[in-house]
Amino acid sequence: MLAGKMTSQELCHDGSDSSEAANGSVQPTFALASEQEPAVRLELQRILSSRFFKTAGRSRQFLQYVVEHRLTGHADQLKERTIGADVFQRPADYATGDDPVVRVQAGEVRRRLEQFYQHEGADSAIRIDLPVGSYCPEFHRTSEAPPPQVLQASPEPAPTVEAPPAPAGRAKLLWILGAVAAVSLILLALSLARQHSNQRPILREFWAPVFNTPQPALICLAKGVTYRPTAQLYEHYRLTHPGTFLTEVEKSSDPLPLDPNETVKWSDLGLYSDYGVATGDVYSAIRISGALGQLGKSAQLRIGSDYSFQDLRNSPGIIIGAFNNKWTMNLISNLRFAFVEQDEGFVIREQVAHGRVWPTSGESGAAWAGTGRDIDYAIMARLMDSNTGQFTILAAGLTGAGTAAAGEFISSPQLLESAYRDAPSNWKKSNSIFVLKTKVTDGVSGPPSVVASYYW
After folding, report:
1. Most confident option among 6-20, 184-198, 303-317, 351-365
2. Element containing residue 278 per DSSP (H, E)
3. What is the model's pLDDT at position 8?
4. In terms of domains, do 424 and 335 share one?
5. Residue 177 belongs to some domain of the structure
6. Average pLDDT for residues 73-79, to the nearest whole number?
7. Which of 179, 235, 349, 374 is most deeply buried (CB count within 10 A of its CB)?
8. Could you tell me which residue, 113 or 309, shows the higher pLDDT?
9. What phi and psi values does residue 411 have, to the nearest 5 degrees?
10. CA 109 → CA 112, 130, 141, 261, distances in Å?
């Protein structure tokens, strides 16, 4: 164990009658020293990105919730009804006896943790466990720690044998060596402190408000409406092209090369709910998740209808994407810079008299939908108190390349440092919004630069 105070059974027993819990064999769980928390958070991210948790949404949410509450000193809240309400959106007074969702999910998390540590986590220095009979996670060091010293009655002191006095010259030499060692240690400490101070704290300062709540930050992506050819349309195509589109891999990977003049009925297209996440949004989410992980803040990825306005009111949110994300368009509509549909294209408009406009276009002036598109623009808004009542970040571009650039901007210490260099002294507690420009090459965005900013 790492260090400690209170048993997991005392903190958050789940009410099960397992023999393991009843016999008291569940080991006590202990409070961490603050400097040990990053190691536990790093282990949590490693678990969540493993194949055993990566696609298990409920297990991911459950484990993130209980570990975050344990680390932030809220283990006393890890009760079945509380978890059911916070994680699984059950009513606050729901009957836990009739709805075992929390107990079932806890068992699933234990099973997946066991699989993880048998395979990908076999070399982990720290292990996260969820004991049977408890919802309070335990943290263990996997390496052997030295046994604690046991206080015993002191025996009679052994007679002291005095060493012969050292010659005066030798004593002076030892004193000089000791002084040199002490000075060297002081210089080393000063050097390390200077290095630490030069590590660009801007990233932590930018994201500091997400630590005002134990709730994980929500990284919110939209899932657009997506249609796909039905099986009947593929069958119709195979009548003249035998042997094509026989497998799901072909249907998902290759476009259906129909004659542009061929008539397609609406019934030939089907709505596919599993599709529709934009590539630029995903790239942005990955960067932001990595930055939050470095800072030790847990995050949850929410897609499409998997989050609501109530979720955004309960947790800090990072909302990604522009015209495909209704929450971005709702929250940004009254800000200094906003996304606007114009002339069958998309632009960013400064919402003041004679305000500036930034369209996405090629260097030669090609329209938004043209093939010469190689410049994109994006908006990044940092809202201390948005319409949700929570700290909110908006990161969105006119196209996916701009959205990816916005994600890079808010996860890069160098870019943030450059952007906020001339900011007002109180910028950390103020709202700010930036218009970003990025050069797009082969569909990939380059480093973004700031073309406009506003603070209030």
Report:
1. 303-317
2. none
3. 40
4. yes
5. no
6. 89
7. 374
8. 113
9. -115, 5
10. 5, 8, 20, 53
Domain match, 424 and 352 both: yes
- Coil, strand, or helix at residue 368? coil
In a domain, 218, yes or no: yes
CA distance 368 to 240: 37
Question: What does the pLDDT look like over 4-46, one tens digit per residue?
Answer: 333 444 445 544 433 333 333 333 444 566 667 888 999 999 9
Q: Which domain holds residue 450?
A: 205-224+278-455
Cβ neighbours for 323, distance < 8 A, ≥ 6 positions apart = 329, 339, 341, 346
Number of domains, the chain: 3
Percent of the chain with pLDDT over 70: 77
DSSP string, 323-350: TT-HHHHHHHTTSSEEEEEETTEEEEEE
Note whether 378 and 399 are within 8 A (CB). Answer: no
The token duo for 254 is 């290759």
Give the domain CATH number at 424: 3.30.379.10
| Whether residues 429 and 391 fall in one domain | yes
**Hey, how many other C-beta atoms are within 10 angstroms of the C-beta on 23?**
9
Q: Helix, strand or coil for residue 20?
A: helix
Are 294 and 364 in a shared domain? yes
In 3D space, the residue among 165, 171, 62 whose CA is nearest the CA of residue 113 turns out to be: 62
Choose one of 239, 256, 271: the last residue of a domain: 271
Phi, psi of 340 (to 5 degrees): -140, 140
38 with 106, same domain: the answer is: yes
From edge to edge, which strands make up the β-sheet containing 337-342?
337-342, 345-350, 357-359
Does residue 365 fall inside a structural domain?
yes
Same domain, 127 and 213: no
pLDDT band for position 275 (cuts 50, 70, 90): confident
Q: Is residue 93 part of a domain?
A: yes
Lowest-confidence region among 75-89, 101-115, 131-145, 292-306: 131-145
* End-of-domain residue from the set 86, 117, 141: 141
The answer to whether 63 and 44 have CB atoms below 8 angstroms apart is: yes
My answer on whether 326 and 260 are in the same domain is no
- pLDDT over threshold 90, residue 261: no
Residue 306: Cβ within 10 Å count: 14
Kindly report the average pLDDT of the chain as a whole number. 81
- Structure tokens, 268: 């030939």
- Give start and end residues of each alpha helix (H) in 254-365: 279-295, 309-314, 326-332
Task: Write the single-letter amino acid at 131.
Answer: P
Interatomic CA distance for residues 395 and 292, integer angstroms: 15
Task: Note the residue count of the chain.
Answer: 456
Q: If DSSP codes are grouped into helix, strand and coil, which group holds residue 421?
A: coil
Residues 233 and 375 in one domain: no
